[in-house]
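re: ur question from earlier - yeah i can do the single chain one, its not a big deal. heres the input i used so u can compare w yours
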Amino acid sequence: MTRSIIHLDMNAFFASVEQQANTELKGKPIAVVGASHRTVITTASYEARAFGVKTGMAIWEGKRACPDLIIVKGDNKKYTHTSSQITAMMREYTPLVEVFSIDEAFLDVTHSQALYGPAETIAYQLKARIRHDLGLTCSVGIAPNKLLAKLASDMQKPDGLTVIPPDRVREILEKIPVGDLCGVGKRLQKQLTLYCNVHTCGELGRCDEKILTRRFGIIGKRLKEMGQGIDDSPVVPVEEEEQVKSVGHSMTLPKDVEHRDDILKRLLQLSEMVGRRARRYDLAGKTLSVQVRLGDFFSNFQKQTTLTTPINLSDDIYQTAVRVFDSMGIDQPIRLLGISLSNLYEHEGQQISLFETDRKKEQLTRAMDAVNNKLGDFKVTFGSLLDEQEKGSHVISPAWKPEGIRNVTVT
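and the output i got, formated as tokens:
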């Protein structure tokens, strides 16, 4: 049976929620920002986008592009509450709902159509309910798989609905620029053009896999499949994700990162998050895994190493994570990074180390934990992360899920 996948993408989500909550903002150019004075624009309304205001701009840049731009401080509770309402609506049509980020989700309605009608009918009903109940609009794509559904949802924005039928996949992809595929950023698009003379999805699908693999390594085969519109990845609800006996965190990045310094900062941030959570439960782990998702959103890689001694100090986790990441040999833009500790043991927190440097490291870590547990995350942190915390202050993570994080289990 051919699958029917819906990708639902809320339009200018944060800004639209703010405009709906405050009628004085409707129809006006607004930009949602974090609480810090050094924050950047996280979302702009379509009225602001018409002037060239974009996500990631500094406030002064947005003001220069649109002098009448209204700056609105973001409200995470408001966005998560609204997102949870939308998720509940989607789950009325199918239990197979994958919350991809706070403002987008995949639905597998293959087996729901006997009850609710064709996928297009379900999509129109969802759009109508979201508009009626919440006053918000969304763009929807319908296709045989997640890759194509996401491509379709980007074709008509805002408030669009696009269908890619199975029998027209090759025809539709033939002339679509390869850069329109989710995850093929400007750098990768330039490389495909320069080294492979590939400009369209059709050309990518016909490109020799050996040439792609020789140039792009492990993702060469995946690139060819993307050009052909092939994607077998399932829609996985949070409750059906594999329950792993580990302590871990991952982050979906606001934009693809490829420079080593940026990647290392993210690994350090994740190491502190994982370490602090493990220490909170008095756990330490021998096996450390690093997860990487490339810019295409669907190419996932994971590698792990097992140590002789369990660890839970942030610096130890970071040093190990860097070694594992370097051994993966990935040189493509990255959209998601994750670190997890498994093979867990109860940690004897009162055991005194034989080495003075280790004792100082443990004392410093306990002091940092005490402050952060009392005052909030990253109030005390590594110097290299100060800029990252300022930029991300009070901005909801794109990897937010309504169910929160999973419980910790000791192996």
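The longest strand covers residues 334-346. not sure if urs matches, ping me
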